[in-house]
Amino acid sequence: MASAATNFSLSLRTKQQIPISKPSFFFYSTSKNNHLRFKSNNFPSHSVSTARYSRICATSSRVMDPSAAKSESTLPTTVEVDLGNRSYPIYIGSGLLDQPDYLQRHVHGKRVLVVTNKTVAPLYLDKVVDALTRGNPNVSVESVILPDGEQYKDMDTLMKVFDKAIESRLDRRCTFVALGGGVIGDMCGFAASAFLRGVNFIQIPTTVMAQVDSSVGGKTGINHRLGKNLIGAFYQPQCVLIDTDTLNTLPDRELASGLAEVIKYGLIRDAEFFEWQEKNMQALLARDPSALAYAIKRSCENKAEVVSLDEKESGLRATLNLGHTFGHAIENGVGYGQWLHGEAVAAGTVMAVDMSYRLGWIDEPLVKRVGDILKQSKLPTAPPEIMTVDMFKSVMAVDKKVADGLLRLILLKGPLGNCVFTGDYDRKALDDTLRAFCKS
User: Fold this and answer.
1) Residue 139's closest CA among 153, 150, 128, 124?
2) Sequence-ordered alpha helix ranges (H) in 137-180
3) What's its top-level EC category (predicted)?
4) In the 8-state DSSP scheme, what is residue 69?
């Protein structure tokens, strides 16, 4: 078993360098079990920048009271995804769509294609077009408005993006802009990766789910009738612009769905963040601006750090999929779009936690805490009754984390904030969990 602990730094837009200890990662692998263990639950605090904005290089900070940020500048928080010459910023703040510079600095060339859906377009398309063109008359903007819903995350709908791009005679200097939730972000990013073999794109996520998870890290793709996200590419954006004001129009169900991914970060790698969530969940559900901004920032820091260390999901990044193997099976089994992604992940997380407990890897109080916070978040804690053991097994057999015929899972192990990505587990525990949650 090898361990590595190095120093990271928080680089500000001044010459100041503040050393930050990066958490240790413990990897151990054999040809038998491909077992990876990840531990990361002690993050030191960092100072707040007085420069134009702080540039957080893929690190996480100690949980702080978000109300302390109310007196800070209205300039956005910027979390940097550190990928060498492909690094990019995540801008987080209120009213960012009214500040054109943040978008315009990342547009390449003079042609832009905005990809959005019929729900988001009436709300924010005009505002985004204005932000792209204000004081910038040389830029022309086209748009394609797709149907809304997970059931449209398919090849037929994707072709509508290519049709519009080709009909508009866009060239390799164009920029695609994803305006919407996770479905739009995934599809626009995949289209950008393939159009003319790759053009620039920008993410403008408008849901909690997309803001805290899917817009960050460059995973793009579409679903297949046999499995979720099986067709896609790793393709990083030029930037992610998170205007937290877009959450004002988000339905309550979508808000709760996104919180499933927020909870995930606390369970797998950030115990203090989970404890903060337990105390502040009602504020999040009530859309308290400072609480939401803090949860988004903290989630992005966690995601950015993992992506910077394992962009192509060779091991560590897979830990971000806690509950997703079970959850994807639910989405497929009931029909894409019937359950929201976060709802399926929440039920899948409960199943993963149940299995972790059956293996003796976590204690009973942690099981209860997981159930309690998901219930508090108004999320499901069990799959729908339609799901059977055979349905779970058939979909899980084609999961992206299957390697050499072995289903690998992300499970909790040890104290809160620790998890493993492994294929080395007692198959009886998996069978027992499936039978416990399914009638047949």
Assistant:
1) 128
2) 155-167
3) lyase
4) G
Contact status, residue 195 vs residue 165, Cβ threshold 8 Å:
yes
For residues 72-94, b (16+ Cβ closer than 10 Å) or e, as one string? eeebbbbbbbbbeeeebbbbbbb
Of 44 and 400, which is predicted with more confidence? 400
Which domains occur in the chain, in start order?
Answer: 77-250 (3.40.50.1970), 303-437 (1.20.1090.10)
* Segment 202-225 mean pLDDT: 95
DSSP per-residue letters across 22-37: PPPEEE---TTT--EE
What percentage of the chain has pLDDT greater than the value 70? 83
Rounded CA gap, 326 and 39, in Å?
23
Are 211 and 254 a contacting pair, CB within 8 Å? no
Helix/strand/coil for 422: strand
Report residue 234: phi and psi, to 5°: -85, 120
Cα(94)–Cα(165) distance, integer angstroms: 31
288: left (phi over 0), alpha (psi -120 to 50) or beta: beta
CA distances from 148 to 116, 229, 348 (A): 9, 17, 24
d(CA 183, CA 158): 11
Q: Which residue has the tokens 């804690």?
A: 381
Alpha-carbon torsion, ordered 60, 340, 238, 298, to 10 deg:
-10
| Cβ pair 261, 213 in contact under 8 A | yes
What per-residue string of b and e applies to 295-321 under the rule 16 or more CB within 10 Å gives b?
bbbbbbbbbbbbbbbbbebebbbbbbb
Residues acting as catalytic residues: 197, 219, 261, 303, 313, 317, 321, 324, 328, 341
Cα angle 96-101-106, degrees, rounded to a multiple of 5:
100
Q: What is the pTM of this model?
A: 0.82
Q: In 10 A of CB 26, how many CB atoms?
A: 15
Is residue 137 a contact partner of residue 101, using CB atoms and an 8 Å limit?
Answer: no
For the ranges 25-29, 128-132, 328-332, 411-415, which has the lowest average pLDDT?
Answer: 25-29
What pairing do the DSSP bridges indicate for beta strands 25-27 and 54-57?
A: unpaired
For residues 265 and 27, what is the distance between their CA atoms, to the nearest angstrom? Answer: 19
Each residue of 73-119: pLDDT tens digit?
A: 478 999 999 999 999 999 999 999 999 999 999 998 999 999 999 99
| Chain centroid offset of residue 36 CA | 21
Q: Which helix (H) or strand (E) holds 318?
A: none
CA angle at 185 for the pair 323 and 237, rounded to the nearest 5°: 105
